[in-house]
Amino acid sequence: MTTPERSQNPPQPQLPLPPSGRPTADGHRQDAYPYGGYPAYPGYPAPAGELDLRSVVHLVRTYHRLVAGIVGTALLSGLLYAFLATPQYAARSTVFIDRGTNTAVKELDQSAVILDKEEVYYASQLGIMSSKEVAQLAVASAGLAGHPAFAGARDPADVLLRFTKITRRRDSALFDITVEAPYQNDVAAWSNALADAYSRFTLLQNAQFVTDANKLVMEQTKELQQKYSEMQKQYGSLLAQTGSYYPQNQKAILDARIQSLEERKSEVLVGKEQSSALVSQLRRVQDPGRDPLSIAAVRYDPTIQGLAQQYEAQEKELAQFLTQFTPQYPPYVKKRAELATLGARIRSQASLLLGAEESKLSAAVTELASLDRELSQLKAEAIRTTTGSSQVEGMGSGVEALQKYMALMNDKLQQMDVASKLMANKVRVIDRAQTPRRPSKPRKELTIVLSTLLGVMLSCVVLGAIRYFDTRVKDADALQAAAGLAVIGLIPAYDATNHSLVVEAFQTLRTSLCYASDHRRRNVLLVTSSASGEGKSTCVTNLGLILAGGGERVLIVDGDLRKPSLHKFLKVQAERGLCEYLAGPETSPDRYFIQTANPGLTLMPAGETPANPPALFSMRKYADFIAQVRERFDWVLLDTPPCLAVTDANAMAEQASLVLLVVSFKSSETPLVLRAAESFTRHNHEIAGIVLNRYEWQTSYYYRHYHYYKGAKPPDPTLKDKVVMSFRASSGKRRRK
Q1: Angstrom distance (rounded) from CA 214 to CA 409
Q2: Domain 477-736 listed as CATH 3.40.50.300
Q3: What whole-number distance in Å separates Cα of residue 93 and Cα of residue 196?
Q4: Structure confidence by residue, pLDDT tens digits, 238-276
């Protein structure tokens, strides 16, 4: 058949002709297109290191239902919790603990470390507040065992402790006892009961020392009373036996001396007991964690009372400073140093008292031993002198000594009773808990805000995972940056509303190919894809229609010898074609050409499927065929099988001028596209660019400008119907598959 004549077209504007070199190292042809090397409409990829907000927005819009579902689920969960969860009510009471001691102990050695025991003390008090013993006191005092919250519990104290949270305010002696439970009218009473129970427990602990001391004194007094009764009985028996006392000069002297020594011994013995008791108390001063003023013997000592009053006054001033200023406030630091110095003086004075009492105790022991020896000698002499009278008088002296010792013990017992009455409790309840007006949990507004934020965060994580693991082509700029190739065509997915948009997309592709081919100087275009089903044959058909509709002479060669489909799209009978021509003896392919119903558009069908298609494309006859049609037609479009599935496309590319890679939007895998592009560039086949097929134009910023022109100039109805026809045929083919 004859070659169609080229129609007369209006002259085209001459643009600078690009060089025909191979791609550079980054995959682009410098100056291959006007305006900086890329077609004007696709835009440029975001520079490296910058966040492409458009792709992020596009990802959110694509998966907006998923995002809405995640956020809605999180919000619904928060609403269910906020409105269905059992309300919890919290009540808080505040307790103040007055240690009455300085918080640091400084050793006499200047190289020693200052040991701060305040934290240890308050940590111990925190443990006492949280103890089961205090909780049991609170349960008993408030009668909580019969409350529904404690019904059936083995130990109501454990239940109360589960409801309770005790915290210490930072850098203070204030402790908050918070009870949180679903009982609005009871939590305040429970919190106050715990505060009162701790106060009583502390008071009992403070009085325990005095109680133990009283018990010891009472036991000693009871022993003395028994001994006194026995001595009285012995004295009476001795008087009855001797009858009377026989005064003599020697006996009188011995008796006076013995009586004097016995009195002295009683005084020394009483002094020894007093010194022993004082030494036992004063030795607690050596404990670095104990306050000297907490010891009665130190606190009521006349030499220390003045220092104690100054110490208490400075402690009050320091507490007032702390309510107004921070611990770093210079006057506060100075006052605290003065307080520490005063405490050191008190401890030093207490140490002096301890040394003095230890000296007195040692002297009393020595003197008591001396008195015992002297009394023994005198009594032996008296016995030798007058056995009877000495026994009587010695017994009487012993009775009198016991009487005096018992009197002294009674005086000490009265003093200890007074000390126990003067001892005050150092735990005070500052703020008593009040009945809460609103629940502490759940906080509905906060729960709703947090659940919404959680939903947004989960959505971001899910979208990030989708963006990372989903390798499908979803963005033209990202594909262009990854492949290093220009996206020269964005073909929208066809629907009933975008007839003119599809036609305009192919018109734009034609313009880009005109520049890429040096205005048809390289007019053999191989169209392929990385995988099947990406719309490659549809794009070839529609591109041929667009080129022929512009007055070009176009030959479409169906090189997919395995699954040919172009004759179906163009609705022609194809009993023989390329396979028969290459395998036959004919030198002219004219009788295998089929003129379609569209002027200027010629089809070379595939023909019968051969046994080895790549062998046909490696023949010299195929190269001669391409050389003939290159001169006879303005455009030669070669439709091929997917380039990664079989080697046909690479074999055919040896005779092609340019390669056009068709990629299906949201269907093609980016790694496969990159591998397909690499397979051509590795063999020095120039890739004109990428055509992104089935693009979602409704959400694309590339096609927003078409909305203004849509309807202003209706496209060619005949051409529109032809393009739509090929798209419908392709869609029907995919549905049948």
Answers
A1: 11
A2: yes
A3: 10
A4: 666 655 444 546 667 777 788 888 888 788 888 778 778
For residue 97, give both structure tokens. Answer: 């603990």
Considering Cα of 391, then 397, then 402, then 405, what sign does the dihedral take?
Answer: negative
- Beta strand 174-181 with 89-97 is antiparallel
Q: Which residues pair with 116 in a beta bridge?
A: 104
Query: Which of these, 396, 279, 306, 730, lies nearest to 545 by C-alpha position?
Result: 730
Bond into 642 cis (ω within 30)? no
Long-range contacts of 28-34 (CB under 8 A, 24+ apart): 28/484, 28/485, 28/486, 29/686, 32/486, 32/515, 32/516, 33/486, 33/512, 33/515, 33/516, 34/515
Helix (H, G, I), strand (E, B) or coil at 340: helix
Q: 115 φ, ψ to 5°?
A: -100, 115
Which structure tokens are listed for 514?
A: 């005109």
Q: Percent of the chain scored above 70 by pLDDT?
A: 75
**Position 417 confidence tier, pLDDT thresholds 50, 70, 90:** low
Sequence-ordered alpha helix ranges (H) in 11-143: 53-62, 64-84, 118-129, 132-142
DSSP annotation of 287 reads -
197: closest CA among 266, 242, 131?
A: 131
Q: Indicate the angle between helix axes 330-385 and 302-324, nearest 10 degrees.
A: 160
The model's confidence at residue 42, banded by pLDDT at 50, 70 and 90, is very low
Indicate whether 354 pLDDT > 90.
Answer: no
Alpha helices in 585-695 (DSSP H): 613-617, 620-632, 648-652, 670-682
**pLDDT class of 51 with cuts at 50, 70, 90:** low
Which residues have CB under 8 Å from 440's CB, separation 6+? Answer: 88, 89, 90, 180
Q: Position of tokens 């809605």?
A: 72
Yes or no: say if 487 and 42 are a contact pair by the CB < 8 Å rule.
yes
Q: What is d(CA 183, CA 90) in angstroms, rounded to the nearest whole number? A: 9
pLDDT in tens, 548-607: 998 999 999 999 988 998 999 999 988 888 999 998 888 889 999 999 999 999 999 998
Domain residue extents for the chain: 51-81+452-470, 89-200, 207-431, 477-736
- pLDDT at 626 (0 to 100): 93
Dump pLDDT digits (tens) for 202-236.
888 766 666 666 677 677 777 777 777 777 677 66
For residue 711, pLDDT beyond 50: no
Q: Confirm if 480 and 52 have CB atoms less than 8 A apart.
A: no
Handedness of CA 69, 73, 74, 76 (dihedral sign): positive
Do 97 and 157 contact (CB within 8 A), yes or no? no
Q: Is the pLDDT of residue 495 over 60?
A: yes
Residue 474: CB atoms within 10 Å: 18
Minimal CA–CA distance to 442: which of 47, 98, 79, 135?
A: 79
Backbone angles phi, psi at 316, to 5 degrees: -65, -45
Tokens 């050695």 sit on residue: 109
CB 652 within 8 A of CB 638: yes
Check residue 625 and give its pLDDT: 93
Q: Are 420 and 207 in contact (CB under 8 A)?
A: yes
Side-chain half-sphere CA neighbours of 334 within 13 A = 3
The secondary structure element, H or E, covering residue 662 is: strand 658-664
Position 26 confidence tier, pLDDT thresholds 50, 70, 90: very low
Give dist(CA 202, CA 363) in Å, integer: 39
* Mean pLDDT across 500-504: 87
DSSP state of 229: H
Higher pLDDT pick, 700 / 541: 541
Chain centroid, CA 483 distance in Å: 39
Round to whole Å and give the CA distance between 676 and 532. Answer: 13
How many CB atoms sit inside 10 A of residue 550's CB?
16
pTM across the whole model: 0.48
